[in-house]
Amino acid sequence: MLLALLLACASPLEVSGTVVAGGVEVVLRGPADQVEVLGPQGEVLAARRGGQGLDALWIDVPVDWERASAVRATRGEAQVTSALAPLALWGGVDVALQLPLGQPLAWRPGEGIALRPVDGLPVPLGLQLTAVHPAEITVGAGQVRERVALPVAGQRRLIPLSLGAGDSLWLEAGGARLEIPTTWSPVPRAEAAAKLAWIEGRFPADPRGLPETGRPEDRVTLPSRWWGALLRRVGLGERLSPELGPWAWEAVTLGNSGDQPLDLSLSASVLEPDGTPSRVFRPRLREADGQLSRVVSLLRVPPGGEATAVLPVYVDPRLAHQGTWIREVRVTPLGSAEPLLVHREPLYVSRGSAWLAGGLAVTLLGAALGLAWLGLGLRRWLRERSTSELMTVALFGTLAAVLTATSRLLLSGVGAALGPFSPLVVGLLDDVLRTALVATLLSLLPRRGVAALGVLVGWLVQLLLLGSFLPTDLIFVGARVAWLEGGLWLAGITRPTGWRDASPLGRWARLSLGLGVASVLSTGGGLVLHMTLFRLWFAPWYVAMVLLLPGFAYVLVGVALAVPFAESLRRVEG
Q1: Which of 3, 293, 374, 428 is the most exposed place for a label (fewest CB within 10 A)?
Q2: Most distant CA atoms of the chain, gap in Å
Q3: 0.70 cut: is pTM over it?
Q4: What is the pLDDT of residues 479-536, one digit of tens each?
Q5: How far apart are CA 355 and CA 334, in angstroms?
Q6: Alpha helices in 60-136 (DSSP H)
Q7: In this predicted model, what pLDDT tens digit does every residue of 259-316 receive, in sequence order?
Q8: What CA–CA distance (Å, rounded) separates 526 from 522?
Q9: Backbone torsions φ then ψ of 200, nearest 5 degrees
Q10: Helix/strand/coil (H, E, C) string of 424-463?
């Protein structure tokens, strides 16, 4: 709720709309509670819920387009209203232009269009006709003449055309003729190249060119092969298959410092390090003869402004492997083969580690077993243990929690200074002494459930001291209980083997084995959860260092401190 309020305060509310055949297309910027389409007298024709997005949100509202006159957005007590322009109707159809082909042009019947091709090359454009009423229209461009029948209201046709110098563009319907004046102003290639600038290339992006903040930049991330195969087998594939859709989109923003618009063709492809097209990124849906290795988009860059083209990027996960490729964008004038600009950037591909996926599965399984062990045994342990034993467990669990909280507070500055190496220093106080407390408790009460109760008490006390709770805490606690109880049972600590009567070295070895295995598994599970849940990356040498020193070596030191202390307590007890 607080985040929504902050976003609402920080983002201005803007709304605009366009009348289309069959309804209204509303563009909302900033959080809003509701969006309404209004009639000529201010009456509400239709209403839709708003959204919390900071970027533009497109909302299609089916409504009587002939009555729609304005759109209104509401956020609390604030309201913003924007008038709607009528449809560009002529001859019973909505007429729209795409210049160049694929790029909508803000054009109304009666207006002209300016054609400024590079070196006087022909300009491809599109004439989009949407029937508001059944109609039959003839379209002409230069020497081309085409008859278009639209017998059903709402039917749409896009007629691709090409205009050269001196060509005219016109429409005829029912004896009436609509001439679209054209002006022809060629731009020299050298001038176009000097005025064209590369502003930005965003990857990955969404279909509208906005950044995909949930994915790393300039990188394709794929699951491990066995995990991806498992997801496909159970019908939970990570995304659309490469035969059905792109993995992501690439948004290319170009600038034009000249005083005339530039009509351009953008060709995007992914190359191998040697410069040859990569089969891994071949656009399967767009190939006709098996040789196409690129995607193409047309773009008009306005004078003194910027424009963005969005191009799909396809990935074949069956061929992809970890490595570096080259993302290339070639910008050429329409109708030309020689580029004005060629831009290249590295593209990285990384696959999820099979070890990481397996570690996550093991950690989650351990957490489930640990929580189940707590749920099934808690009532029995509380009933069977004496009050003195429960007080002992509570005392040691509370000491461990207070020690952890104190070490975090006292060594927070050291941890911030050392960064990723802070566990090496903080662990000398936290891990060593906490292990000594656990080893002492087990030396006094070597029974099943004691370690689980100690972990539960320590977590609850730490929750009260630090005042923070995350759902992931249950995973950490459950996994630690499972590894502790399992490691202690395997080492014979919680079984009646008489290990407490062995030599100090024997007791140290047995406690070190049980607690050391549990610590390594808990530390490894924590790293796995941080890598998967929080998207952190650790180098192999760092993982080995953390597992070896805080995870295992510090446990040996803590047990060495606990053995003589526990023996003295047993003598006092006995």
Answers
A1: 3
A2: 114
A3: no
A4: 999 999 999 999 989 887 688 888 999 999 999 999 999 999 999 988 888 887 776 7
A5: 50
A6: none
A7: 888 888 899 999 999 989 898 888 765 443 445 678 888 888 888 999 999 999 988 8
A8: 6
A9: -165, 145
A10: HHHHHHHHHHHHHHHHHHHHHCCCCCHHHHHHHHHHHHHH
